[in-house]
Queue: 2 jobs
Job 1
Amino acid sequence: MASVDIVDYHDLEPEFYQQHVHHLFYASSWLKVLSNIYGYQFQTAIDRASGQFIIFTVVEHFLGSKVISLPFSDYTEIDVQSTGAGAKLLQAIQAKYPSLPVVLKTTHAATAPVALQLGHPIRQAYYHRIDTRNMEQVDAQQSSSFKRGVRKAAKSGVTVQLRRNEEALQAFYQMYYQLRMHKFSSIPQSYAFFQQIYQVFMAQQQGFILQADHAGKAIASIIVLEHKKILYYKFGCSTEDSLALRPNNLIFDTLMQYAHQHQFMAIDLGLSGTGESYQGLVRFKESMGGNRQDITYFQSLPDGYDQSAERSFKAILSSLTEVIVQQELDIETTNRFSEILYPFFA
């Protein structure tokens, strides 16, 4: 473990991360969003011998602080192919924070021997990718129902436009708010969070919104972020009364065509859970040609760690969220609650 150092994220040269970071959720731009909105201070555990590393932060609150890589991120691509590298990195983090749990979100399968160096699996999820370098292969993988949906949307007069303005962000948030509150009975991330994404990504030409319109009204929208020639679908929403028009089929078809035309290598379709409520989303991603890959959350607990306080806190947070949803507060009031409560969801 002597070869492992834990340093402030900014103590390593930007060129190191530019060379070794290959996905969005370790990118400096994404970390900037999280730091600006939540005040996180990032650290890097680096194995000097192998060059492998973990970027993490300490999430602090009064009933259960923890180390996590990384909050509000789909996964972290922790490369621990070297024998024992993952264990050494984890041990170094545990040595610095002996009283805190450590949670690592990885792209490893739960049963992979190399991944088990990172703790005990506590949650499974998926992400899907589409290789947009070979659209003939993508077309062959797409289901007939997805293609029919694309044709139906176009025939019904749905149009899709790429936008990078705040009006599109506001239209997105209005729909996103309705979807989270009324379909999922959960408060959305605050508008300030999405404004940070807009400023860090879209205003810098590193992301965009695809908005579907019908009869002069926005009916569906997705936020797409760019990193190293990969497009990341991060957030999406649509109006309940427009789903029969299949706007999402046309949006994602447009996204695939855009990716291919602009020589992006792939589209990352984002995280999907493994539970029954996610099965429709998983089928939709696979119907458009997405290839399923694993996400596993690993956790390491200190000896004798009592999780009861954290469980009680989560139960209180869930009850409070339920009350806010049931009260059907206006969007501005709900947004203020989001700013206060969302840091505790990390």
Job 2
Amino acid sequence: MLRPENKRPVFFNPVLIQMPVGALTSIVHRVTGILLAAGIPFTIYILDLSLQSDQSWSRVVHLLDAWPFKAIAIVFIWALAHHLLAGVRHLLGDVDVGSGLISARRSAWMVNLGGLAVGLLAAGALL
């Protein structure tokens, strides 16, 4: 953004911008997609390791029983839930279902709270 008096750039701080809930939901949808895509190689590795032998199966079970992996699993479950709900919201928006301002805000809040609820349920089940 330029100041009209001297045409010098103004410091732009994106943290100070208050974005609407729909924009935040869309940004988190993209971030969760990246997170889920980045987790695919690890998931394939764990699956491959678990199918090799009985000893490797017990090693995977022991590995997944550690609290850091439980925390990672909770984050991935939340990411999957949020990404799925936000994806359905975006698909419905593409066919003009819930595209009005009030319904779009409501659906964005539902996506955010629904993903959080699934994450909390996963935390309760895994911890």
